[in-house]
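Example record used in the benchmark description.
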Amino acid sequence: MDGSGTTIRHIQADEVEAFRRIRLEALRTEPSLFASRYEDWEALSLEEWRNRLNEPVFIAFQGDEPVGITGLVRQRSSKMAHRATIIMVYVRRSMRGTGLAGKLLSAVTDHARDIGILQLELFVSAENPAAIRFYQREGFLRDRQDSRRGSGGGQGDRRRHDGSPFGRLGLTRMAQRISACATY
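Model output (structure tokens):
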């Protein structure tokens, strides 16, 4: 399958089922690549799924079928409101290598720029060299490595589906030069 014929939309609450389908697919098929667990997301009520759409979520569709996803979370602190984190990046395996990941990244980047974001950050599994190379080609620079350990299952607990620590790399790109080569 190629990336032609795909559309990317900033989805709203009335498209929550497409969000649920592609997010659960990502967590079920690639559990080692995400800090979130399938079981936790599967247990969410429909209202909780809708609440997750209070932050921007972009879905790539091939026809009516969701085939990719990404989202953006803006920092809440007034001193940090110029920063946002790209989250939930996933492209269905059959669509990889088609340029769709770049299109999703462009959609979320354009939106970030439009709302005044100056710095984009993301975290990627240290065990996903293809994704690391992709983000570096897109102008993100590695700025830290993080292996958070916890035991409570809360926000600070970053463990893979098998219980082992989730090592991740932090990557950053400045948004004011986002459409050209980024400088740091």
